[in-house]
Amino acid sequence: MRTVIIHRSDKIGGPYQGRVAFQDKGVAQGELISTPKGDWYAYLFRDFGAVGRIPYLVPVKWEDGWPVIGDNGKVPETLSLPHSKGINPGIVASDEFSRKKRGAEITLSMAMEP
To answer: Domain extents for the chain?
Structure first.
């Protein structure tokens, strides 16, 4: 099981406080991102062996200065996002090279447990 651990401090040199922030389905290792509207997400990955690292976008809320990742500590089964070039940065895109026009359409795809 992979785990997300977060540390925080008021100063770059510390002292730091740490805690387990998320542990579900082996989804971990990434970063916190915010949208222009102030919504927060964790952009994380899950290792699927020969398939590779599958990206996950997991909602984040803040409580007492700590990020709380997921819905009740879990990766959500679905995630509804408005389509906007500022929000959907092309996390998943086609690797089909026969297209004549590049970047015409961006689709956000959420990886889910089979």
So the answer is: 4-69
